[in-house]
């Protein structure tokens, strides 16, 4: 069972290296990295057993593995984690891609298509970017607050 550190590490990897989108039929979150990170992918497989690991692939001189989250695992486990952790303030690009995926695949994700993310459903909205980059301490403090349930990860 994943603990707060495990969940925070996965979210951090998805912010930095992941892709939020779909294949036109179904939503998916994809993490693609060089095969030198195989041990990390094996940890993800063991810790988050709903995703699927593919590869290794050789393409364009690059050898990589790819982990994908789809279906019930994405909808029921990964989406709530991402909704409670991601924010425009934390990483605008990832937040935007995540929101686009939510809207494009709302029906497949069991969403109305118009509702705000669960992390903001209580009537709050994500704060605007602060104008400067967050420090690592600020990012981890926000993640801890969101994962511990002691506050909104967007605050």
Structure overview:
This protein is an alpha+beta fold. It has one domain (4-119, 133-148): Endonuclease I-creI (Roll), CATH 3.10.28.10. It contains five helices and four strands. The chain has helices at 4-17, 38-47, 71-85, 92-104, 136-148, and strands spanning 18-22, 27-34, 52-59, 62-69. It has a four-stranded antiparallel beta sheet. A hairpin with a 2-residue loop joins strand 3 and strand 4 (62-69). The longest helix has 15 residues, at 71-85. It is globular, with a radius of gyration of 16 Å.
List its salient traits.
155 residues, alpha+beta, Endonuclease I-creI, four-stranded antiparallel β-sheet, 42% helix, globular, disordered C terminus
Question: What's the CATH H-level homologous superfamily?
Answer: Homing endonucleases
SS class: alpha+beta
The stretches of 5 or more residues where confidence is low (pLDDT under 50) are 118-131, 150-155
Rg (C-alpha, Å): 16 Å
How many domains make up the 3D coordinates? 1
- Give, in spatial order, the strands making up the sheet with the most strands: 1-2-4-3
Beta fraction: 15-25%
Could you report the average pLDDT, rounded to the nearest whole number? 83
- Following the backbone from N to C, one meets helices and strands in this order, namely HEEHEEHHH
**Biggest sheet features:** 4 strands, antiparallel
CATH topology: Endonuclease I-creI
For the record, the CATH class is Alpha Beta
- How many H/I helical runs? 5
Distance between the termini: 27 Å
Shape: globular
- Tell me the helix content: 40-55%
Q: So, CATH architecture? A: Roll
């Amino acid at each position: 069972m994943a603990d707060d550190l495990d969940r925070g590490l996965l979210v951090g990897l998805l912010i930095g290296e992941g892709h939020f989108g779909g294949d036109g039929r179904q939503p998916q979150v994809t993490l693609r990295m060089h095969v030198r990170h195989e041990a990390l992918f094996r940890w993800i497989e063991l810790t988050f057993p709903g995703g699927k690991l593919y590869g290794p692939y050789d393409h364009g001189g690059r050898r990589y593995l790819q982990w994908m989250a789809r279906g019930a695992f994405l909808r029921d486990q990964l989406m709530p984690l991402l909704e409670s952790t991601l924010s425009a303030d934390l990483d605008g690009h990832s937040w935007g891609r995540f929101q686009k995926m939510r809207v494009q695949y709302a029906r497949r994700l069991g969403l109305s298509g118009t509702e705000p993310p669960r992390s903001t459903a209580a009537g709050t909205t994500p704060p605007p970017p602060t104008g400067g980059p967050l420090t690592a301490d600020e990012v981890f403090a926000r993640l801890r607050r969101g994962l511990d349930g002691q506050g909104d990860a967007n605050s």
